[in-house]
Design goal:
Chain A: Pfam families: ABC_tran. The structure holds 2 protein chains of 2 kinds. Helices cover 29% and strands 23% of the residues of chain A. By secondary structure, chain A is an alpha/beta fold. Chain A folds into 2 domains: 8-88 and 159-239, Rossmann fold, CATH 3.40.50; 252-331, Alpha-Beta Plaits. Chain B is mostly helical. Chain B has one domain (18-251). The chains are: A alpha/beta, B mainly alpha. The A-B interface holds A 40, 61-63, 82-84, 86-89, 91, 93, 95-102, 106, 110-111, 113-117, 123, 126-127, 129, 153, 157-160, 178, 181-182, 185-186, 188-190 and B 1-7, 10-16, 18, 20-21, 24-25, 28, 31-32, 36, 93-94, 97-99, 101-109, 112, 254-255.
């Protein structure tokens, strides 16, 4: 990873709720998270529900004070920082943070007055195609329209760093495209973008750097190319080190569709690790994935295995390894 | 969609001056209050109806001590409506919808947010003073001129105490609970808590004089009707303000 100045740095951040005296005791949400972000890049944080994505963002934004560790946002501690720092940062919260009784125009004009040099409202309205509902009460807007208002509220101060918590949730494909384009343009302007998402295609398309969280820890991080590489070039944080070897490109993997259920003995006899693709079940028609097919001999050994167990796949495809594949590997119990 | 200009050094984003931010938020919240039908009902229309209704029903001669005692009581009721019920409900729902958290990330920040709310409460109280004062004068209210200064001071202190109580409630329980509790408490304290009708200073009921509503009502009546700065009720009200502020500071949750 290149050594550019950081706009965000979380080092060994821990966050716990509850107390030793309470009935539920102490629950640790973050267990030592390390995340960095650079200007002019999109940094994406992904992970299963409850992994700590939103808590990580809240610590980075200064909304929560970590139990331990350090957070630096544009060189300052965001929890203690004043208006000067907050003017340089835009935040879109997961639950929107929008007052329900006022129209978007009133909210956005109000927030723009808190800044000396805000983003021109007309331009923002045009970019996010909000003119049709600018004077409608927010509670009457659709989920997608509210998302666009929340995004506009994050950008109205013309920030240097933008935090977006699930920016495309509830958006139709057309609106999602508008938001994606805007995020890419913001990056090209040199702003630092930090976002969370459940949409792994979105992450793969937008991300310069990806951090995968699980159980309050970053278990892997790197560029999409590093994470999906044949020889994993990503930083395997869970094993406290890096695997170090950069790949030239994404790994190929083989996916085959089995016309019947596979027995544990058959799976045990496979020459390469065979896993169900995604969240599928072991049943007739299941998709099975074999990662890191790098050599014709691998394919030959798989063919021999099918012959040995009397299986004729109904479909065989080669695919590049995607971020989704990495996510499933990392998320497996 | 037009393209953004390519990467170039942009001027650093800067906050507006602090006073401008607080006043902007005060205007924003005042506007929202006065344009919200339910808020307008509680802060202006119901107190106005109480003033006219109690006066017309001729209860004042026996229960309130005349229009000179009724108007300050209704003003106290109105202050409770805007500071306690109005701010409590608005803040509770803002908290539930994440608005407080969002605004805390803007240059306004938590401190500016609270100061802006204070500006909004005082602005609404000014509107209430003008409307209810004018209605009272029409009905024959003749306040003590010096007492009006004390009245204003008492109402501001009452606003501080009840805003702190409203924020304490809004910051600790669900918005729906805040809605229910503030409305019920406003009606009970207004009707039987010494706000509109003076409490008996004899017998076990004297303990009710320790209620913030009674302290506000007593101090407001003493100021407007007699031109007196009633020290004991003011001290009781100030104690409520300090305790509620400390409690809100300790237990208020932004999300």
């Amino acid at each position: 990873m290149s050594q550019q100045p950081l706009c965000l740095s979380l080092r060994q951040v821990r966050y716990a709720v509850g107390s030793a005296r309470s009935a539920g005791g102490v629950t640790e949400i973050l267990s030592g998270v390390d995340v960095t972000a650079q200007p002019g890049q999109v940094t994406v944080i992904i992970g299963p529900n409850g992994a700590g994505k939103t808590t990580t963002l809240n610590c980075a934004q200064g909304l929560l004070r970590p139990s331990a560790g350090t957070v630096e946002l544009l060189g300052e501690d965001p929890y203690r920082a004043g208006a000067d720092l907050r003017a340089r940062v835009g935040v879109m919260l997961q639950d929107g943070g929008l007052p329900q009784a006022v129209p978007p125009a009133v909210l956005l004009k109000h927030v723009s007055r808190l800044h000396q040099n805000p983003w021109p409202l007309d331009d923002l309205v045009d970019r996010l195609d909000m003119s049709d509902f600018l004077t409608t009460g927010i509670r009457r807007l659709s989920g997608g329209q509210k998302q666009r208002v929340a995004l506009a509220a994050a950008l109205i101060g013309d920030p240097e760093v933008v935090f977006l918590d699930e920016p495309s949730a509830g958006l139709d494909p057309q609106s999602r495209q508008v938001v994606f384009d805007l995020i890419e343009q913001l990056r090209d302007q040199g702003r630092g973008i930090v976002l969370t998402t459940h949409l792994l295609e979105e992450a793969q398309r937008l991300a310069d750097t990806v951090f995968i969280l699980k159980d309050g820890l970053v278990v892997r991080h790197g560029t999409v190319a590093e994470l999906t590489a044949a020889h994993d070039g990503a930083h395997d944080d869970a094993q406290n080190g890096t695997t170090g070897q950069r790949a030239d490109g994404p790994a190929r993997r083989l996916v085959f569709v089995s016309p019947r259920r596979l027995t544990p003995e058959e799976l045990h006899a496979a020459p390469l690790p065979v896993q169900l693709d995604g969240a599928g079940a072991n049943q007739a028609g299941a998709r099975w994935a074999v990662s890191d097919i790098a050599d014709p001999a691998d394919f030959g050994s798989l063919s021999s295995w099918w012959q040995h167990i009397g299986l004729m796949p109904s479909e065989i495809t080669f695919e590049s390894r995607t971020l989704e594949d990495v996510f499933w590997e990392v998320s497996a119990p | 969609m037009s393209e953004l200009t390519s990467a170039s050094p942009r001027p650093r984003s800067r906050p507006a001056p602090a006073l401008q931010r607080v006043l902007a938020h005060g205007r924003y919240e005042t506007r929202n209050t006065l344009r919200n039908g339910e808020q307008l009902l509680v802060t202006l229309i119901l107190p106005l109806l109480v003033l006219i209704g109690v006066h017309r029903l001729d209860l004042i001669s026996s229960a309130t001590g005349g229009i000179d005692a009724l108007v300050p009581g209704v003003l106290a009721l109105a202050v409770m409506a805007s500071a306690f019920t109005g701010q409590g409900i608005a803040t509770g729902f803002d908290r539930q919808y994440g608005v407080l958290a969002y605004l805390a990330t803007t240059p306004l920040g938590p401190t500016g947010l609270i100061l802006g709310k204070a500006v909004a409460v005082l602005s609404v109280i000014m509107v209430q003073l003008v409307v209810l004062g004018a209605a009272g004068l029409t009905l024959g209210w003749s306040p003590d001129p010096l007492g009006l200064v004390w009245l204003l001071a008492v109402l501001v202190l009452g606003a501080a105490a009840f805003t702190a109580l409203g924020l304490l409630l809004a910051g600790t329980v669900r918005a729906e609970a805040t809605l229910a509790v503030t409305n019920v408490a406003w009606v009970l304290l207004g009707a039987a808590g010494g706000t509109i009708f003076a409490l008996d200073h004899q017998g076990p009921g004297v303990l009710l004089l320790l209620l913030p509503s009674a302290a506000l009502g007593e101090a407001a009546r003493a100021a407007a009707a007699d031109g007196v700065f009633a020290v004991v009720p003011v001290l009781i009200l100030a104690s409520w303000a300090v305790l509620a502020l400390l409690a809100a500071r300790r237990w208020f949750r932004w999300r």
